[in-house]
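Example 3.2
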Amino acid sequence: MGKLANISGKQAAKAFRKAGWREIGQVGSHLVMVKDGIRANLSIPQHKELSTGTLRSLIRAAGMTVDEFLKLL
């Protein structure tokens, strides 16, 4: 399994877009993304650095593995 580096919310959103997620809006400093066929919404904080726990939680909610996510970066 790959190691999650400190990445920004902007970089995370870009990787999720490559995986088929699309933006539906923003609530405060959080970008909200959805994907057809998946009930969960991703709420990605637009911070300079995301904690690894937050990033892992987003990856899990997206139904991906860490390695799949790292390939999209």
